[in-house]
Every structure is written in structure tokens, then in C-alpha cells.
């Protein structure tokens, strides 16, 4: 009996060892994780090369902070040079050669890549002011809608009793035209008068004539819709003209490094990265995250969240349709731009805030 | 495969632009900076007629060519009075005006928003929706433009153009009205550029004013200088080189942190070296 018991124990022990071995070998046979490729078409060189470099840095930072995931995430960056022709080449390479599963674009690349993404059944995230880029099941957009920014702007103008606005705006980029269109629609219904609308081309250096024209109309505030370096040159020349009328903006003060020019001025922005993201970015790259960096960081996390959920329980990578469905389910997502909500229309909404420049820092008003 | 087809389509479109610009710069010796203008006119005409009016692509090409003829006639009358550096400066000014129209006439062109959703050509229910079919269409257009260019160059008209390039005053002594010849070739070149613009708009499905800026005229100029002035083959070789080189450089193994910037440097260095050793272009006959 004893011998039989010993034999039985030995058999069970051997079985356990063999079974354990099989389980371990079985696990090993599962092999390395599947790779989900994310292609990025962004300007890495040229005048706006800082935008693409910031996006690249932010996306790699997001990758570093992913933690344990079912899939590997690989990023392939291609320079679009902010030229639609080059962006098209980059997109075709990413889709045909690199076989990416998702593609991220910014600015002029979006309108070309959006139909390509639909045709090739891959996820496309665009960082752009044009809401139509989110049309179709595969296309998503992560940029605060102009209507929302203008709602906050006009409400603040009303609250401050401002009735006369003078605008300086560049006509070279589509973003400012979108902001201006929505501003005009909203300010009319709020009874705010546009007393001066001075337009200029990108690269303008001398604004003195425009400033003189605007000054004659005696506005309560100047709305500056321009980007660096025109923004700073314009602000300097307004001050040199002895004008102490306050200035405000939609987004553009956020990117300036010459904060002393705008000290004490309030503005509207949806680009208020959390300190968690800003600190991590500064720690890794020893610089402030530029425009679109936080959006790019969020896009990585949104895609990864959707892919992991859609792929749970599946042997391989999830189909695009499932990723798209999971993306649209994301609500109250803690992103680099605050609480994110992915709308059914594919547009990612982040909070619009009133900010001001105080002691050289961009601070949220009321905090 | 899709990537190679994309490169081939761009090559065909830029070859058309190179061939046409070579007729005026390489063969006639007029330093024109207006090519992106007529390229843009063709593109915008096709974009608007397809998206707003729902017209047929080939009708839009014809309308684009007609508009290019009218505008080139008007501007050409002024331009034909100039030569050498003055011609370049006046043509530059003309380019700035048309770019400003593309950018600021928002009711028509949508200004900086550009025009998205431009359709593909179709013939009798066959839509050129695939890359392969669009490539065939583009190569066919290139073939026609090449034949037309060769006909011009080999004709007596072409010989007068070359004579204008060599010595305009001398050819005038023989009774040739050089203003007429300069205007005629300017209009022909504008027509060809408009065709390339229509193809471009339909292929990319989106156009915006930034595509037709001065840098585009410079890019097309670089194609013919690099390929060879006064050489039709040079225009095609130049287009192949200028379209292919940046794409090839995408595959050069460089550290990812500086890859994009280094590619730009390598691109520039290759162009400088080529111009140092082949100032007449890859297969060119004439030096500016």
C-alpha cells in the first residue's frame, strides 16, 4: 500500500512537472507581442518644424509611460515639411511600405490623409482646426472646436462690458480664418461691434500703418489672431505707438516666449496642458512642450486605450472598425489637455479655459 | 506598390510642368517665375467645377486651359515687353498677385481653407479611382505634352524661340516680331501647366493656396535646371530626380532624432554637388 502510495505520489509529481513544463513552453510559444504601428506625418523641418518635433517628443514620452500593454506600439515619423505634396508622399509610404495601423497628421496633411485612411481602412487622427476632417468612421480630430473657444471669448467680453473690438489677423493660415468666422457670428448676437479688422500676410514686419488705422477706431480691446513671430512684432509696435488698449487672443498667447509683452492680459485657450504632462516633458526634453505636443500625447493614449480594449481576448490585432467603436466610447479620459471626451462625430473635446499672463507665466484665471 | 504608383503619378505631373517650363526658360531664354500660377489656375478650376458644379473632369480641364489662355494672354502682353532680369521680376510680381487672389478671394477659393473632396476623372462610367488607372491617365497626358513640346521645338517656330534665346536683337533685324513669339510660347506653356494642375487637384483630392506659392515655381525651375535647360529629356530626368530623391532619402538609415533634418542637408548637398559638376544639368545642352 505504501509502495502504491509512493508510486502514485511520484506519478502525480511527474504529471505536475510535465504539465508545468507544457504550460511554460506553451507560454513561450505564444511568442513576442504583436506590434501596432502608428505612423506620423508632421513637419519635422522648416519654419514650423518645432511643431512636428514637439509632437514626436510627446508621442515618445507617451510611449515611455504606457506601462504594461497587450501589444507593442511602434512609431514611425515622416517629415511632411508642412507641404501637402510631401505629406502625401509620407502618407503613401506609411500606408504602403510601413503598413501602419493608424496615422496621425497635422495641418495641411489632414485633408489629403483623411480620404487615404478611409480607403485603406486605418485609423486617422488629425490635429487641425477643420472639423470636417473627422468625417467618416475612421477619422478623428483632436483640436478644440473654434465655436467653443469663441463662446468663452465672447462671454468674457460681455462680462467685462467690452463693446468695441479691433482685430489684427494674419490671412496666411486657415486656423485664424476659422476663428474669425465664428467670432463674427457670435459677437453680432452679443451686440459687440467690430470697429477695425486689419489683415496681414505671414512674414509682415511693419504693422505701423495698420496700427494707425486701428487706433483711429478707438476699440476697447484688440484681438490678435497671429502666431510667432508676427504676434510679438505686432504687440511691440502697438506699445511703441503709445497705445495702452488691452490685447487678447485665441490660443496665440499660449505659444509666446516673450510673455512680458502680454503681461496682465487675459486670453482664451484650450491648450492648457496638465502639470503632469508639462513636468514630464520638461524633465525629458529640458524645454516647454510646444503647440500640438499635448494633443499628440493624448492621441497616443486614446489610440492605445481603444486598441487594448478592442483587442482584449482576440488572438491578433483588433479590426479598425472595433478600434473606432472603442474610441467613440471614450468619455472622461484623463489626458494631457485635461478631461477628454470623444464625441460621436469623432472630435475629441477638451476644456476651454480663460487664462492670463501673470508674472511671465501662463496661468488659468480663477486658480 | 501604392507608394511607387504615387511617386510615378507625381513624376508624370511634374514632368509636364518641367517640359512646359523648359520651352520658355530653356528654349526661349525667358526666366519665368509664373509657372505655379497657371498650374494653380488649372487646379483651382478643376477643384471648383468638380466640387461646386459637379462637372466632368475633362470638361474642367478644358475650362482650366481656356482660363489659362485668357490670363496668360493678358499677362503675356505685359511680360513680352520685357527680357532678362526684368522679365523674371515682372513674372514674379504676377505670381504674387495670383497667389493673393487664391488666398484672399474666400467666396470663390475658400482662401486658406483650401478645397477638399475633389473627385476623380471618369469616362463612360469608368472612374479613374485606383492609383494604377490614374497613373495611366497621367502618363497619357505626359505623352501628349511631350509630343506637343517636341513638335514645337522641331518646328520653324521653335527655331525662332532658340534664336530669341541666343540674341533677340539680332532676330528682330531679320524682321521677326519677337513679342508675338514670346507671347505665343507663353500662352502654350500656360495651357500645359493648367493640365498638370487639373491632374494634381484630382489626384490629391485637396488643394490650397500654399501649394501654388513661389516655392513651387522655384521647385519646377530646379527640375529643368537640374535635368537640363533646352532639353525635353532633361525635363523628364529632372522631374524623376527631384521627385525620387527626397523619397529615396526617407529610406536612408539615419538616427531617428536627426533623420528629417539630415535628409534635408543631404538633399541640399546632392543638388550643390550636381550643379558643381554638371552645371548644364544632367542631360542639358544650354547653360543659363
Question: How would you describe what is shown here?
Answer:
The complex is a heterodimer of chains A (367) and B (288). Chain A is an alpha/beta fold and 367 residues long. Chain A has 2 domains: 35-144 and 274-350, Rossmann fold (3-Layer(aba) Sandwich), CATH 3.40.50; 146-269, 3-Layer(aba) Sandwich (Rossmann fold). In chain A, 45% of the residues lie in helices and 21% in strands. Chain A has 12 helices and 15 strands. Chain A has helices spanning 2-29, 49-64, 84-97, 109-120, 146-159, 174-189, 208-216, 230-240, 252-255, 275-285, 293-311, 320-329, and strands at residues 35-42, 72-79, 102-106, 123-127, 139-141, 164-170, 193-200, 221-225, 247-249, 266-269, 333-335, 338-342, 348-349, 353-358, 361-364. Chain A has a 5-stranded parallel β-sheet with strand order 2-1-3-4-5, with helices on both faces. In chain A, strands 7-6-8-9 form a 4-stranded parallel β-sheet, sandwiched between helices. In chain A, strand 11 (333-335) and strand 12 (338-342) form a beta hairpin. In chain A, helix 2 (49-64) packs across helix 11 (293-311). The radius of gyration of chain A is 26 Å and the shape is elongated. In chain A, 48% of the residues are buried. Mean pLDDT of chain A is 88; it is low at 22-29. A two-stranded antiparallel sheet of chain B has the order 1-2. Chain B has one domain (2-212). Chain B is globular and about 55 Å long. Chain B has 288 residues and is mainly α. The A-B interface holds A 44-45, 49, 52, 77-79, 82-86, 88-90, 92-93, 95-97, 108, 111-112, 114-115, 130, 132, 171-174, 176-178 and B 1-4, 6-7, 10, 103-104, 106, 111-114, 116-117, 204-208, 210-211, 246-247, 250, 256, 259-261, 263-264.
